[in-house]
Amino acid sequence: MKRFDLMFGVNVRGTFVCSQAALPYLDKADNPHILNLSPPLNMDPKWFAPHVAYTMAKYGMSQCVLGMAEEFKPRGIAVNALWPRTVIATAALAMLGDAVKPENCRKPEIMADAAHWMLTQKASEFTGHFMIDDEALAHAGIDDLSGYAVKPGAPLLPDLFI
Fold first, then answer.
1. What is the spatial distance between Cα 134 and Cα 140, in angstroms, rounded to a whole number?
2. Where are the domains of the chain?
3. C-alpha 107: how far from chain center
4. Domain at 2-148: CATH architecture
5. How far is CA 17 from its chain centroid?
6. CA of 125: how far to CAs of 32, 69, 80, 117, 155, in Å?
């Protein structure tokens, strides 16, 4: 239960509380955005069976995007989500043991570049989107993703929820 509470405390409660706390500052911003790293909502049971608690926690963040995008739209505040198509080579890989090798991943820079594109869109016109990193980059005119591979040419592993 401690792990369950931690996942919900960080993912769902953290997303909600931080978003609410940022509102006074976002209301004053020229181009206010909230960007959650959360997956597109997909109620296919295959995403729940192997890790129901984690899926619920991540989807809680996605539900915040869905609701807050509509709630904050009249204020001109954009709320969107970004998720990677492939596994990203971060310190979190250590939690997976030998199940995932870094050479089968992309670098974190792909998420940073996708986030940058999303956060530079006009907030009043770009809200409520659930984007995958390579889709955001395609909108930015970037279609050669080879530079994001940890080991170019190696097969890439799809991320969860894709």
1. 10
2. 2-148
3. 15
4. 3-Layer(aba) Sandwich (3.40)
5. 17
6. 11, 11, 12, 14, 36
Active site residue 59: no
What is the sign, positive or negative, of the torsion defined by CA atoms of 67, 68, 73, 74? positive
How far apart are the C-alpha atoms of 122 and 47, rounded to whole Å? 33
CA 4 to each of CA 11, 28, 58: distance values in angstroms, whole numbers, following the listed order: 11, 36, 12
For 80-130, how does the pLDDT look when each residue is reduced to its tens digit (9 = 90+)? 999 999 999 998 887 777 788 999 999 999 999 999 999 999 999 999 999
Token pair 């310190």: residue: 91
Check if the beta carbon of residue 134 is closer than 8 Å to that of residue 145. yes
Which DSSP string do the residues of 44-103 spell out, in sequence order? -GGGTTT-HHHHHHHHHHHHHHHHHHHHHGGGT-EEEEEE-SB-B-SGGGGGGGGGS-GG
Catalytic residue (one of 25, 54, 59, 148)? 54
